[in-house]
Design goal:
Radius of gyration: 11 Å
CATH architecture: Orthogonal Bundle
Number of strands: 3
Strand order of the largest sheet: 1-3-2
CATH superfamily: Winged helix-like DNA-binding domain superfamily/Winged helix DNA-binding domain
Structural class: alpha+beta
Strand content: 15-25%
CATH class: Mainly Alpha
């Protein structure tokens, strides 16, 4: 199933490109989105293999590839 890129997903991806590796909490702070919204986008990006955990206990994520370039 292809990844659906909506406005909120765009905001999350843009933060990875701007800031690099980010925690879930940092994404909530930087994007202004709710934690459930950010978590849902991270789950979708992870399922699409666009991001990976750098350190799971702290929720640190890394963008592997920008899915918008496909």
């Amino acid at each position: 199933m292809p990844l659906r890129i909506d406005e909120n997903t765009e905001r999350v991806i843009d933060q990875f490109i701007t800031e690099g590796n980010l925690t879930t909490g940092a994404l909530v702070d930087f994007t202004g989105l709710s934690r459930p919204t950010v978590t849902k986008r991270l789950d979708r990006l992870h399922a699409a293999e666009s991001i990976e955990y750098v350190h799971e206990p702290t929720g640190l994520w890394r963008l592997i590839e920008d899915p918008r370039t496909d």
